[in-house]
Amino acid sequence: MKNYRLALYLGLAMASPMAIAQKKDTVKVNKDKTDKTETSSSKKTKKIEDLIKKGTYKKGLFNTIQVKTDIYFEIPDSLMERQFLVVNKLSQVPMQVNEAGLNKGMNYENKVISFHRDPVAKKVWVKTVVPKVSSPKNDAITKSVKDNFSESVIEVFDIEAQNSDSTAVAIKVNKVFDGNQKSFNDVLANVGLGGSVKSSLSYIEGVKTFPKNLVVKSQLSTSVNEGGVDLPVTLGVTTNLVLLSKIPMKPRVADSRVGFFSEKHWSFNDNQQKMDEKFFITKWNLEPKDEDKEKYLRGELVEPKKPIVYYIDPATPKQWREKIIAGVHDWQAAFEQAGFKNAVIAKMPDEKDEDFDIDDVRYSVITYAASPKSNAMGPSVVDPRSGEIIEADIIWWHNVMTSLHDWMRIQTGPIDPKARGNKFSDEHMGEAIRFVSSHEVGHTFGLKHNMGASFAFPVESLRSKEFTDKMGGTAPSIMDYARYNYVAQPEDGVTAITPKIGLYDKYAIDWGYRWYPDEFVEKKALRNLIEKHEDDPLYFYGEQQSYLETIDPRSQSEDLGDDAMKASEYGMKNLKVVVNNLLKWTYEDGKEYTDAGKLYMGAIGQWDLYTGHVMANVGGIYLNNTVFGNKKKAYEAVPAEIQTRAVDYLVKNAINLPEWLFFNPITEKTYPVKDSPMGPFEQTPYTMARGMQYANIYSLFMDDRLLRLLENELKHQMSGSKEEIYTVEKLFDQVRTAIFSKKGSLTMLEKMTQKNYVDALIVSVNKLFEKTAVKGLKVDDHLNIPTICNFHEDDHSLRNINYSSMKRVSEVTTYKRAELQKVLDLLNRTRYRGDDASRAHYTDLIIRIQEALNK
């Protein structure tokens, strides 16, 4: 996935170059020698040849001259006004920053700049632009486009010298690389540290120049305040200056039915009646060699003119290198479906290549980061004019293996003995590393998460050895968060339990990368390819959604199969096996129970995931990718039967807490243990169960969920349909009946459930009218459940649906208050039944509800 932001920098207000040239220069008088004055503009410009004699000269994109600590760029006139992409990366970080999740290899700031020579003022101006607007060269509107989407000045340099024929000038660039100016590199703001660089403690390490790019390495220092103490922080940063092609790559326009990252583009022309907004997918410029184009069009596999090459960081432990390389090469089959062989290459860098540098944008590198962070991600550097991927950087955090270990142990331990110990074999861990490598590499091809892929597989098929062997994974796309097969039961004999590159992935690469000779042929072929597979669930694309704001239950993270209730029931059976074997699987003679406590916490987190998967069906809406002609409905409510089953599951497994999970003999040895910055943190089962139950009840009756149910009810009434629908009243009736069915004496857990239900309703009603500040409602949703590449902020949905407006005047409050009244009536009928503790409980709830209803 890409980690790319193009910042629009506005220059400070300043006089024009001509006005500056016309100002009277300050006269400096040397009284000891002469009264002769000389203006700065009349000084004789130095010769570049003289500078070269004093320092070190290197030839490349810009020839560079280093005189002691001064760095000069020699810029030829031929490169003036050409566009360059500035790419800034971290190349070194101290512990304080590492611990905060920032590591070597991360690209934190990109922008497009150009250099402009001003012979009158004897300066070079640097301007930036957002190059996402275009118009035909000869159209009248083009003049307006230039004026309304103009460049902004971000920097200026004095011309220090020029060559003998005045076709190139030299500028001293120290100030933009040593921290004095932020115009080229605002590292502290972009990594979130803030403050300013201490220039006296910062310096330029070196410069390398190549035919199409230039690399400057710097050490920039600041300090951060931690607990009232200023801590020194020095960041190693690498700035790449990349020459963009004069003619951008021919872009491919995005389609919401195939999941690619994209760059927004506005186009204008004289024949329009409105501006045309398009989205260009991000992709490598893959095309056949000129001599192979006819073969390619005949359907023969050909090698691309320029393959996609990934280098493995030499810092990668040797036992994982081949697995990471294999994860890259697994994509060969997908590119072969697009007509290219040997399109993707992964290898170790040549040890003899002295110019190899991980931070050089000529190399796409899978960087290995020593860090406590458990993650991996696959961002790309993109030409914003066309969506062309110039370079990709996969960041591989060493501690990602802790996440893989937890997943496999909790999700597959019951069916795979290899996944039970405190440490796996290198071969078993290596296969997991291979899967993550493939997933992250997929992002660097431009592919977004496809969270809807796993919905294509019927749940029961995941228990079939024949089916799973044939499909080779847990979903039709490795870009889903489909993880491991937690559905298969010990007796099923299923062994293909790891996500693999699937049918959707091959189809998406075919759609994004197949080469076409002209735009007309391309447009028709791409449409036909989508329409050919549009009704096949194996090719369905589902946008990633927020865990807390899931609308379409088909597109969820970490789920499996087409029926969340059935899949979760199987998952719970396996989870019982994990819990029953917690102490056995984590046993190490003489060692504390910390690992057992962490595994226990992971099991509780997995239970919570299943709860969330099921809950998304309640008030859920299927969001279909519609276009004119495909006859699909854009919005379809989840069928009433499915919603009823979902609430039944929640009552059985979430509202009524599973005692085997929270209250068992394990707690005699350890409580659930969660890692924190202050060390392992133990949580008592009762406190944890109460908080998680409350969060689930509150979430089940959240306003947006009820509004979706109400909206569907309104649509149903307006259409006159006789189809059964699930309503807000049905939801309250189902849950209330389960919670308050027992009369008389209650257990402590039953009382806790009733209190949580009543309090969740009271708090949510008061929140609408701002009578209470709702704090502490949010439970740590993922507990100790690991996540991978959750950095994809740009993995945005094209569907932004508002269900929240004006909730105070909606029917939500009416239903919640009516529910409180119904509960009050029930309590008044049972308040004198049961033991003393139960009667006190009933009285307490009555008082709470009466106060909430102002009775």
TrEMBL record:
Residues 105-289 form the DUF5117 domain. InterPro entries: DUF5117 (IPR033413), DUF5118 (IPR033428), EcxA_zinc-bd (IPR032534), MetalloPept_cat_dom_sf (IPR024079), Zn_MMP-like_bac (IPR034032). Residues 46-93 form the DUF5118 domain. Residues 25-45 are annotated as: Disordered. It comes from the Bacteria. Residues 422-743 form the EcxA zinc-binding domain. Residues 1-21 form the signal peptide. One of its GO terms (molecular function) is metallopeptidase activity. Keywords: Signal. Residues 25-38 have a biased composition (Basic and acidic residues). The keyword Signal applies. This is Metalloprotease. It comes from Chryseobacterium rhizoplanae.
